[in-house]
Amino acid sequence: MKSKDGQQRQREYFDPYIDIAREAGAGFRLESPTWRANTVWGQRLGYSASTSEEVNRDAITLMHDVGDAHEGNLPIVVSGCIGPRGDGHAPGDVMSPIEAETYHTPQIEAFADAGADKVTAITATIMNEAIGIIFAAIKVDMPVAISFTVETDGHLPTGQSL
């Protein structure tokens, strides 16, 4: 996202998949490259809160650009991708739903400001964090999908049952 070359690679990455969707007569969901563009991970890169928000908005804008290049060929949905605050495969600090809402709201607001159609949270390991993401999405009137990391026994990594 930080270079023209990187942005071009993102554009080109989706083209063959969009071609497959078109050939199948299906729609396509463009998922933004923002799984790690939240506050904690942004800070690790030296990003301020405003820089993290800009990265998220720019990613959604890029997804719209990709979709616009294929306009009229098939229905396309732009989704803002959210990852967990911690590791996507092992539970970390357990937040309350309200703490998770507060934590994830800036990223979801950036998606909404940039015109994303929905939010998709993937690799959720803690139920409270997933609930907080849902609260944040409701607050900014964004549809949301949650995808959990599930162990071979069918439980979350915390041992909690879905």
Summarize the structure in words.
This protein is an alpha/beta fold and 162 residues long. Helix content is 48%, strand content 14%. It contains 5 helices and 4 strands, in the order αβααβαβαβ. A 4-stranded parallel sheet has the order 1-2-3-4. α1 (4-24) crosses α3 (49-69), α3 crosses α4 (97-113) and α4 (97-113) packs across α5.
Summarize the topology.
Layout lengths: L3 H21 L3 E4 L7 H6 L4 H21 L6 E7 L14 H17 L4 E7 L2 H13 L4 E5 L14
Parallel strand pairs: 1-2, 2-3, 3-4
Euclidean distance between termini CA atoms = 35 Å
Tell me, what's the shape?
Answer: globular
CATH structural architecture = Alpha-Beta Barrel
The beta-strand count equals 4
Succession of helices and strands: HEHHEHEHE
Summarize the structure.
The chain has helices at 4-24, 39-44, 49-69, 97-113, 127-139, and strands at residues 28-31, 76-82, 118-124, 144-148. By secondary structure, it is of the alpha/beta class.
Structural key phrases:
4 strands; alpha/beta; single chain; 162 residues; globular
